[in-house]
Amino acid sequence: MQEATSSKKILKIGTRGSPLALAQAEDVKARLVAAHDHLTADNVEIVVIKTTGDRILDRHLMNAGGKGLFTKEIEDALLAREIDCAVHSSKDMPTHLPDGLALTVFLRREDPRDVFMSASVDRFKDLPEGAILGTASLRRRAQALRLRPDLKVVTFRGNVQTRLKKLAAGEAEGTFLARAGLNRLGMSDKATETLPVEDFLPAPAQGAVTVEVRTSDGAMMELLKPLHCRETAVAVTAERAFLRALDGSCRTPIAAHAALEGDRLMLRAQLLSLDGTQVFEKTGECAAEIDRAADLGKDIGARIREDAGEAFFTELARAIEAEIE
Ligand SMILES: NCc1[nH]cc(CCC(=O)O)c1CC(=O)O
């Protein structure tokens, strides 16, 4: 960011263009304006950036390269100084960021749970034998099949609105969404059932919005400080360290959820086979500090990797490859 004394300076917030991404960027803008006397709605601009991931709705994403597809163009704009910061769902962020960029703040986490949506039944477990379930998430697919091996899973891609349209059009009898997304869109009443974390352990970092900046931009980092939630940062750090220890991409059915209990951080983490027949799960705890949280996630990841064995990963890669062709 340039000198804040220049009243003409416009602070630019980069984001994807989906309704959820825009709602999150607007929220960050409102919080920045509220936290700083010298900022008004007029000198903070939201810049919508179309990413490769947004363009290729017709192909199975994992074939084309995973999570980074939703962030590359935004990160390029950040590095080129076309924007000053970028707002993301932490869950969509790769575990390795380009040099010179960092996730500097995490907003207070929303509800991390998944919801089940259906036009025909009130609960996931009430789906009829052999019903069609729509999801593009390998995690949700594996967790659903673990409980209901009879279900047929079809790929449901696109933003929240697109997926709800597919459901309404009868392309599936049920689908899943993150509660946080629905809440932020003011659509919490659309959920059919909020799923217990015991059955549907959330994706690492689900429900937490983060802001990415250039590490050289001390002024921007300073402006964002009032938005930071330390508890969320500690929990998300453990979850992302676990993800990183197992898989940097989004090609693995992985789940993790951490939360503070007093001054302790409790982490629960899971690795599943694509069909849900194999589940490796561990819990752990540590002092509620960023460094300890990172160590805990890494340690649990290493232990689950050892339990699963290399053959598990070879078979998983094969199963995913067969699935997405
Ligand atoms: N992959 C898309 C995505 N990324 C973040 C959210 C929800 C909001 C959040 O987790 O913060 C969603 C939608 C969904 O999974 O239903």
Automatic annotation (TrEMBL):
Residues 11-221 form the Porphobilinogen deaminase N-terminal domain. Keywords: Porphyrin biosynthesis, Transferase. One of its GO terms (cellular component) is cytoplasm. Its cofactor is dipyrromethane. It comes from the Bacteria. Pathway: Porphyrin-containing compound metabolism; protoporphyrin-IX biosynthesis; coproporphyrinogen-III from 5-aminolevulinate: step 2/4. One of its GO terms (biological process) is protoporphyrinogen IX biosynthetic process. Binds 1 dipyrromethane group covalently. SUPFAM superfamilies: Periplasmic binding protein-like II, Porphobilinogen deaminase (hydroxymethylbilane synthase), C-terminal domain. GO terms for molecular function: hydroxymethylbilane synthase activity. The modification S-(dipyrrolylmethanemethyl)cysteine is found at C250. Residues 234-305 form the Porphobilinogen deaminase C-terminal domain. Its EC number is 2.5.1.61. InterPro entries: HemC, Porphobilin_deaminase_cofac_BS, Porphobilin_deaminase_N, Porphobilinogen_deaminase_C, Porphobilinogen_deaminase_C_sf. It is an enzyme of class 2 (transferase). Coiled coil: none annotated. It catalyses: 4 porphobilinogen + H2O = hydroxymethylbilane + 4 NH4(+). Belongs to the HMBS family. Monomer. The porphobilinogen subunits are added to the dipyrromethane group. Tetrapolymerization of the monopyrrole PBG into the hydroxymethylbilane pre-uroporphyrinogen in several discrete steps. This is Porphobilinogen deaminase. The gene is hemC.
